[in-house]
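Format notes (please read before filing issues)

Several people have asked whether sequences and structure tokens are stored in separate files. They are not. Every record keeps both together, in the order shown below: the sequence lines, then the token lines. Line labels are part of the format and must not be stripped during preprocessing.
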Amino acid sequence: MTRRSLRFDPDDLLAPGSTSVDWQRWMHTLGEQVRRMRAFVGLSQEELARRAGVSQGSVSRLESGRGLATPVLVVARINRVLWGALLGWRSRLNPRLHRALERELVRDPGLVTPVGTPDETGVDELVALYERLDEAQRATLIVVVRATAEALSPEPAGTKRS
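Then the structure lines:
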């Protein structure tokens, strides 16, 4: 098995004989890098999707380069999870890669959410669940969430928070 470099020249993404980016090629390159990073940190597509709060199909489409219409938010969520997973490997990375990772984290400490921590209180997951439901199911979900929130709230029912 030959090792291919993760480095690439942005000019390699230009359409032949053109000065514009070949977006299909760009997405294919991005997808390949996402797949390689996911495999390196030992995540399945399903686990990456769960941690990122996206569908497994979104991960699959991105990795296969079929994700031209993939929302940038999906790409950002996947990237954040992969960076967090890479942080877990810090002590096992070669010194050069370890230094590069540390420089990125110093430059942008908000780059990652540590693996295993929920996103902003699970709101994204709740919204994703809501969006998969039809109108009647959505109404039922709202009733269940309200009842659950009231049951979990330390304040008596009917009182308003200020």
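For reference, the curators noted about this record: Residues 1-6, 115-120 have pLDDT under 50 and may be disordered. Residues 113 and 119 are 8 Å apart (CA to CA).
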